[in-house]
């Protein structure tokens, strides 16, 4: 540090130092509150399935194990609870990596049409259970080449389609479409005609653990982290994600991707 003899300068420097420290402390306090809240949410989320599993095991030990049919049913339910725990821990792991910026993206050129088709194949059965039709804008039968982390984008598409089914109506429809946006961008839209989201909830959708209907969503499974993960992945790509929804009518989640320049020529 240069030696300052001028008193006024020195006072200014001290004041600035104090101000900086104050800001630093404020930031740390906010972060600490955030951390506590997060831990609170995590233990809450874990508790529910843990108690469920414990409940079934204790009931079995209490005598239910003797009845063959009951035994099978309870073991199946316990296994479902464990499966839920695994999903939650996997999502937590993912979100922690994303938030500390620890997630390495593997950029490559791939056909986004193929990724959408993979998600549809994976979720066909789940959709069929609610008689939901998965449709894909067939104007895009030809490949549309984009540059991104294929595996992560696969996860984004799958999460959005899963939600459209989970919050979709019986006999409903989920439609995925891909459009050119500007020269080197495409936009992928996942549209459903499901329950929709009330206006006041929209701005909170991407928050960790946020759910519109706590009990309803829990019945549907999921960790409440899905959309938060989706947003992180898209933003890690420096892309944008949007949501539009009308309560009772349906929702549309969309995100942008970098298109490989001469992708048009391939079509
Ligand atoms: P969850 O595990 O609860 O599905 P998400 O982070 O994926 O967690 O979604 C957060 C909440 O946003 C959901 O609980 C639901 O209330 C709402 N939501 C997400 N997608 C849709 C959709 N397509 N239609 C209506 N509501 C949705």
Automatic annotation (TrEMBL):
Residue limits of the Histidine kinase domain?
Answer: 41-261
Keywords annotated in UniProt: Kinase, Membrane, Phosphoprotein, Transferase, Transmembrane, Transmembrane helix, Two-component regulatory system
Q: Which GO terms describe its molecular function?
A: phosphoprotein phosphatase activity; phosphorelay sensor kinase activity
Q: Which domain of life is it from?
A: Bacteria
Enzymatic reactions = ATP + protein L-histidine = ADP + protein N-phospho-L-histidine
Biological processes annotated in GO: cellular response to phosphate starvation
Does the UniProt entry include the keyword Nucleus? no
Q: What class of enzyme is it?
A: transferase
Q: Name one GO cellular component term.
A: plasma membrane
Q: What is its EC number?
A: 2.7.13.3
Protein name stated in the entry: histidine kinase
What is the organism of origin for this protein?
Answer: Sinomicrobium weinanense
Q: What is the lineage of its organism?
A: Bacteria, Pseudomonadati, Bacteroidota, Flavobacteriia, Flavobacteriales
């Amino acid at each position: 540090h240069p030696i300052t003899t001028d008193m006024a300068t020195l006072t200014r420097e001290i004041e600035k130092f104090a101000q900086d420290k104050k800001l630093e402390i404020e930031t740390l306090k906010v972060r600490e509150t955030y951390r506590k809240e997060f831990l609170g949410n995590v233990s809450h989320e874990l508790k529910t399935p843990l108690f469920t599993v414990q409940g079934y095991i204790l009931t079995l030990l209490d005598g239910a194990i003797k009845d063959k049919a009951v035994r099978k049913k309870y073991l199946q339910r316990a296994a479902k609870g464990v499966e839920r725990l695994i999903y939650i821990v996997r999502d937590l792991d993912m979100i922690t990596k994303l938030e500390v910026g620890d997630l390495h993206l593997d950029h490559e050129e791939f056909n986004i049409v193929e990724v959408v088709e993979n998600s549809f194949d994976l979720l066909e059965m789940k959709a069929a259970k609610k008689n939901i039709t998965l449709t894909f804008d067939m104007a895009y039968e030809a490949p549309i080449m984009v540059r991104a982390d294929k595996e992560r984008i696969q996860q984004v598409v799958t999460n959005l389609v899963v939600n459209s089914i989970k919050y979709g109506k019986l006999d409903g429809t989920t439609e995925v479409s891909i459009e050119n946006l500007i020269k080197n961008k495409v936009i992928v839209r996942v549209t459903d005609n499901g329950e929709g989201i009330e206006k006041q909830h929209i701005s909170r959708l991407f928050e960790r653990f946020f759910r519109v209907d706590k009990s309803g969503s829990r019945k549907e499974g999921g960790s409440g982290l899905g959309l938060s993960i989706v947003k992180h992945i898209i933003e890690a790509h420096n892309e944008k994600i949007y949501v539009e929804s009308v309560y009772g009518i349906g929702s549309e989640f969309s995100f942008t991707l970098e298109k490989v320049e001469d992708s048009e020529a391939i079509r």
